[in-house]
Amino acid sequence: MRRAGKDLLSLALMDARNHTLRWFGAYEQALGARGFTVPLLPELNPPLWELGHVGWFQEWWIARNLQRAQGRHADPRAARLASIEPQADAWYDSGNVPHDTRWRLPLPEAESTRRYLVDTLEATLELLDALPDDAGDDALYFYRLALFHEDMHGEAFAYMAQTLELEPAALRGTLRAPAAHAARPALWFAPTRWTLGSPDEGFTFDNERDAHEVAVPEFEIDALPVSWSQFVEFVEDGGYDEPRWWTPDGWAWVQANSRRCPRHVEQLRGGVLARRNGVLARVPLGQPVMHVSWFEAEAWCRWAGRRLPTEVEWELAAHLGAARGFRWGDVWEWTATSFQPYPGFTPDPYRDYSAPWFGTRKVLRGGSIATRRRMKHPKYRNFFEPGRDDVFVGFRSCAV
Question: Based on the structure, what is the number of domains in the chain?
Answer without folding.
Answer: 2
